[in-house]
């Protein structure tokens, strides 16, 4: 199956996509992660994206589509994909229809994570991840079982994203409402949209998502 997780910054897309990946053998494709990889590698796309991402604005469709197309060319995605943070504009949604059509595939479900804006500022500002395996944590909501060591890999190096500060989060929320939220109606009109309350605890959201995806497989 191929899924889209739609939702504002901090909604839990990455947290839930990683759990769905482990539970259902799907491949998480986060355009945010792909772009951060391009920035770290210093590629042309990365150089163009870096400042835009640090301001919390959307990177151009052309750049995002390039990094995504490259990733989709790898063989592991045949298992099925969870798109996390893509599409984010009407242009990206149209391009995705073309990409899937060309592969003889379709998006089976679009799951919209519904949350309220004020809570998102706190979620994003408290977030950090394991530098070795990418597992996500939160100062308040999700601490590792052993202080300072990753639950998954035991790594002790944690890192924070440069765009995870209260001011940039507001810019990212504005971009979400202006450009991405309209996709909810786009997919609802096709009958592929399911909404889920993502203000609930991580485990409750996980169960809701697992039930939806379980019905598709
Ligand atoms: P991206 O990396 O996609 O970031 P984002 O959409 O802002 O989403 P986040 O990663 O911040 O949040 P999330 O929903 O994954 O939440 P998480 O699970 O971590 O994009 C970054 C930038 O790249 C963009 O600003 C843009 O510049 C560019 N970009 C990327 N894709 C693009 C595209 N398609 N087009 C154009 N530009 C693009 O959870 C957050 C925290 O909350 C964690 O600490 C977690 O532990 C905690 N948490 C999660 N769920 C819960 C819960 N239920 N209760 C309590 N805490 C929770
Ligand atoms: Zn780790």
Automatic annotation (TrEMBL):
Gene Ontology biological-process annotations: AMP salvage
Keyword Nucleotide-binding found: yes
The EC number(s) this enzyme carries: 2.7.4.3
Record-linked Pfam families: ADK (PF00406), ADK_lid (PF05191)
Reaction equation(s) it catalyzes: AMP + ATP = 2 ADP
GO cellular component, one term: cytoplasm
Protein name from the UniProt record: Adenylate kinase
Lineage: Bacteria, Pseudomonadati, Pseudomonadota, Alphaproteobacteria, Rhodobacterales
Gene: adk_1
């Amino acid at each position: 199956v191929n899924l889209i997780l739609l939702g504002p910054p901090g909604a839990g897309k990455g947290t839930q996509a990683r759990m769905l990946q482990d539970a259902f053998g799907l491949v998480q494709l986060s355009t945010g992660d792909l772009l951060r990889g391009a920035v770290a590698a210093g590629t042309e796309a990365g150089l163009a994206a870096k400042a835009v991402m640090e301001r919390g604005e959307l990177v151009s469709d052309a750049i995002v589509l390039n990094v995504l197309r490259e990733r989709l060319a790898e063989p592991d995605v045949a298992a099925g994909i969870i798109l996390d943070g893509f599409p984010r504009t009407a242009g990206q949604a149209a391009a995705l229809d073309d990409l899937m059509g060309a592969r003889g595939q379709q998006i089976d479900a679009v799951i919209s994570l519904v949350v309220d804006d004020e809570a998102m500022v706190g979620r994003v500002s408290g977030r950090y991840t394991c530098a070795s395996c990418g597992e996500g944590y939160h100062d308040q909501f999700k601490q590792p079982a052993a202080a300072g060591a990753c639950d998954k890999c035991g790594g002790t190096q944690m890192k924070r994203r440069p765009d995870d500060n209260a001011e940039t989060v507001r810019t990212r929320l504005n971009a979400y409402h202006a450009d991405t939220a309209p996709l909810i109606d786009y997919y609802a009109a096709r009958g592929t949209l399911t909404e889920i309350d993502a203000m609930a605890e991580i485990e409750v959201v996980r169960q809701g998502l697992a039930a939806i995806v379980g019905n598709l497989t």
